[in-house]
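Shipment paperwork, digital attachment
Item: protein structure file
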Amino acid sequence: MNTRRTTTPQSVKASRLNRRDFLIRGGLMGAGALSLPALLAACGGDSGSSVDLFFENWPGYMDEETIGLFQSASGFSMKYTEAFNDNNEYFAKIQPELSKGKTIAPDILAPTFWMAARLVQLGWVQKLPKADIPNFVNLRDDLSGQSWDKGDEYHLPYQSGIAGIAYNSKITGRELKSVSDLFDPAFKGKIGMLTEMRDTVGLILMGEGKKIADISTFDAASVAFDKLEKAKSEGQIRSFTGNDYVDDLSAGNFAACVAWSGDVLQLTKDNPAVKFIVPEEGGTSWYDTMVWMKGSENSDAVAKWMNFLYDPVNAARLTAFVQYISPVKGVQEELVKMGGDNAKLAEDPLLFPDAATFGRLQSWGALGEEEEAKFDEAFASITGA
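Attachment content:
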């Protein structure tokens, strides 16, 4: 289950509204800026009329200005929807059609990387029109050449982030540095784990000295599941959560928890006692990535859109809105040029980790269908999902 964007905490929701209000009041969105529903209606998204490009994405993951500017600059009409609520849920939605060789309505989806790998393996996406996406060169080096798409032919990252440990220093009474701190008996009943299996299990595996990129079978990961199950049965874990961990963390119900960098970025500004760390053993690196669905014939529009997003100026605008780690080179410099609060974002280590931090991040490889099912079943039995 992926919940980074589906249960956005109230503190983040409020800050997004404030940022949007700030843009409108400051005139930065332009006199012709429209709300997202209005934009969709204007370009045919609500009326069912033909459009040049259909992008289905996660909720709260796009600013209105970017869509409007793309339509003006490219001349293409665009339908943009936010119906991607969960990786597995969405897979179940599209599987009946795609497994029969049929097509789905969206041209582009932005699943999390492991689901994108699954779609590639099944042959449900097509190679990107890279020759028409010159800004492809702005892809961050660390996101290039994944094991499931070594030539970067089938996907282009949309946004990325880090899963590490967040803690409330008022409750812990000390700094935390290691994955082992999550299992410290002193914090019994005050530990939170994520319902995103790859982040929770990945961190535990790294704590056991494993490289998660090399994990391809359930047996190879069983040590982490055993440790997680033991911690739950002994009462070490208070609960498994999505983004709502921020409320328990801020209130002190959690001493520490597995957390996402983008969420904590907002929370630390309101509550300095809350800290985020990449553990000594490492953190998980995740990203959601754009894929071009098989059967789509809108190659020109797909290329124009991806090229538009990979212009550092446009990528910086999107970063200021979503506040996740951009996959695009040059965004930090563009935020500085924007000035004000956006320039301050350019200095934030959670948005722009240093080389040493990047060096401690690991990503999962692709799992086969049978192994995926074993992981999901075991995790669900522990979390009670």
